[in-house]
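**Paired protein data**
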Amino acid sequence: MIILGIDPGIRTGYALLDVRSPKEYIKLSGGVVKGYAGVDILLDIMPKPETYVIENFTLWPKLAVKVSHDDPELLTVRYIGALTSHIQRLDAKLVFHQPAYKQGCPDYMLKRYGLWETSQTPHERDAMRHVIVFVRRESAAASRLRQKGRVL
């Protein structure tokens, strides 16, 4: 299964992974793009994945001052809107993750799965983390259903 993880922002990180199992991943592509042109390139040139996992944006009151300094035009929100609009026209699954989900995949897991490269940006790594957390959560949910005698 091919999954594209996206960490949207002023520097949008992405990671296109071929998921063989919840413990086996092959990185097909990854990096960082900037601006709407970068987001367009990301969506138009990349092979079309079956699933897109996008880090969502929530404006928490205690972080509003930081956001107003780091991203005063709320470009992150605009990029998420552009991504959502484009992806909804495709025959693909779209999943949103809260930023905290990436904490479910610390650095040692990226290293264990052979996905750690010193040249990667934090945004690219975060995109990979979202894919891995998504796959592990889906696998765990399927396992729970099988244990209850329900077939997917």
The chain has one domain: 2-147.
